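Supplementary Text 2. Reproducibility record for the structural model of the 146-residue chain.

All settings were left at their defaults, and a single model was retained for analysis rather than an ensemble. We include the record here because the model underlies the residue-level annotations in Supplementary Table 4.
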Amino acid sequence: MGTIARAVVPLPRSEGEKGRLMELYERYGSMAYGIILQIVPQPEQAQAVLVDLFATLPVEEGADKTERVSALIIRLARRKALASRPGSVERSLTSFQPTERNLPKVVFNLAFWHGCHVTEIAERLNIATTDVLRAIRAYVKSFTVA
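Retained model, structure tokens:
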């Protein structure tokens, strides 16, 4: 395992928390791994991030009714995966060639999977920040409209 696995400091767990954590892992582990693998394409490193995610997951946060457990795990998996990437790796936005047709998908991928900030995307693609936000909204909306 890489340095991530060595840096994991598991939270102290009661037997009840351990059982709840195993339930969460069995239910959401593959979903979290899929998200992590999209951001960290090296399987060994992605597995280390997954272990880190569930070893440090605050179980009581999952009980919070203001956010669904799946949304919490998606958010934390993405955050840990983005944080695990080496800081020296330059995200290349020049490899993306957005057209009017694929702009929403390109912008969403840059924001979600690559962790680029909205202003960074706008500057590099030479579009307005409001157009970046509209593109993200259009991409997400394309999944909700039947």
